[in-house]
């Protein structure tokens, strides 16, 4: 498990491009046959990925000083690869492309597997400290109701922006109060329409929680310029396909790509209200 410490906004404004990338960019998450994890001191979030060619067992590791990974934690997962199975304490959950799940605190035995090792699942996950156990559930953006499966409500699918503003996008909220309960983790996915390249602009900050973005569905020759920093001290990080970025609570988090893309957002902090944010006027951005 790689460890990342928190950074002060007063220091970040002096960082070089290399230092910005070292502190906030997460690369090489999806490695065939491995589980990769990054632990951030910012709200104690763990960002990780499992790409099972053969089954992979999630262990705690010495960094979190726990008997098992979710002894004091909860986890959200979204699959961005081939069909796969997550086994939680003996129960199998099959995840197709862009399907997700929430795993509650106290789940001990977690195994990741792919249906086909040639086209493995790519299980992307965020994990946060938890104080209470909530039910483990499978989450589907579309489908019919069945036992143990949560279908994302129509009210939690939101279209924003416009093609004229280059930011026509669909937000699909997976984990949040009223749909999938958690202690503090909120998670979902935003897809840009063809011809749109901007996300989360006009931008905002939210002091009560931090965020991690994972950009994907980008061709090899495409990139996203991810903007961060204080509204009056903005910086950018150039990102490629299937790379993640850590966004502190004091930082904006917005991106502009060379073409349309999709990203998964995960938020951790004391407030789970999706619209708890402090907007930044376009005239104030510097």
UniProtKB/TrEMBL annotation:
Catalytic activity: 5-dehydro-4-deoxy-D-glucuronate = 3-deoxy-D-glycero-2,5-hexodiulosonate
InterPro entries registered for this protein in UniProt: KduI, KduI/IolB_isomerase, KduI_N, RmlC-like_jellyroll, RmlC_Cupin_sf
GO molecular function, one term: zinc ion binding
Binding site for Zn(2+): 204, 206, 211, 253
Biological processes annotated in GO: D-galacturonate catabolic process; D-glucuronate catabolic process; pectin catabolic process
Superkingdom of origin organism: Bacteria
EC numbers for this chain: 5.3.1.17
Cofactor(s) named in the record: Zn(2+)
UniProt remark on cofactor binding: Binds 1 zinc ion per subunit.
Functional pathway: Glycan metabolism; pectin degradation; 2-dehydro-3-deoxy-D-gluconate from pectin: step 4/5
Leading EC class: isomerase
SUPFAM superfamilies reported for this sequence: RmlC-like cupins
Keywords: Isomerase, Metal-binding, Zinc
Residues that span the membrane, as ranges: none
Family from the record: Belongs to the KduI family.
Role played: Catalyzes the isomerization of 5-dehydro-4-deoxy-D-glucuronate to 3-deoxy-D-glycero-2,5-hexodiulosonate.
UniProt xrefs under NCBIfam families: PRK00924.1 (NF002091)
Protein name: 4-deoxy-L-threo-5-hexosulose-uronate ketol-isomerase
Organism: Anaerosporobacter mobilis DSM 15930
């Amino acid at each position: 498990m790689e460890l990342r410490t928190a950074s002060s906004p007063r220091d970040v404004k002096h960082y070089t491009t290399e230092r910005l990338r070292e502190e906030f960019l997460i690369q090489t998450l999806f490695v065939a046959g491995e589980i990769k994890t990054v632990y951030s001191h910012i709200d104690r979030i763990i960002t990780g990925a499992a790409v099972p060619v053969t089954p992979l067992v999630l262990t705690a590791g010495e960094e979190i000083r726990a008997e098992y990974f979710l002894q004091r934690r909860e986890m959200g997962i979204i699959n961005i690869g081939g069909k796969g199975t997550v086994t939680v304490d003996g129960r199998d959950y099959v995840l197709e492309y862009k399907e997700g799940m929430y795993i509650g605190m106290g789940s001990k035995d977690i195994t990741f597997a792919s249906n086909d090792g040639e086209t493995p699942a790519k299980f992307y996950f965020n994990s946060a400290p938890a104080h209470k156990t909530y039910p483990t559930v499978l989450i589907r953006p579309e489908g019919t109701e069945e036992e143990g499966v949560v279908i994302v409500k129509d009210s939690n699918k939101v279209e924003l922006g416009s093609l004229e503003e280059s930011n026509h996008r669909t937000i699909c909220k997976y984990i949040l109060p009223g749909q999938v309960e958690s202690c503090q983790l909120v998670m979902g996915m935003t897809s840009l329409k063809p011809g749109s390249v901007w996300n989360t602009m006009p931008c905002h900050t939210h002091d009560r929680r931090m965020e991690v973005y994972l950009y994907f569905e980008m061709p090899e020759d495409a990139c996203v310029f991810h903007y961060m920093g204080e509204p009056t001290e903005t910086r950018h990080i150039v990102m490629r396909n299937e790379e993640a970025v850590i966004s502190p609570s004091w930082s904006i988090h917005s991106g502009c790509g060379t073409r349309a893309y999709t990203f998964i957002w995960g938020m951790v902090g004391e407030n789970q209200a999706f619209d708890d944010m402090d907007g930044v006027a376009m005239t104030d951005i510097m």
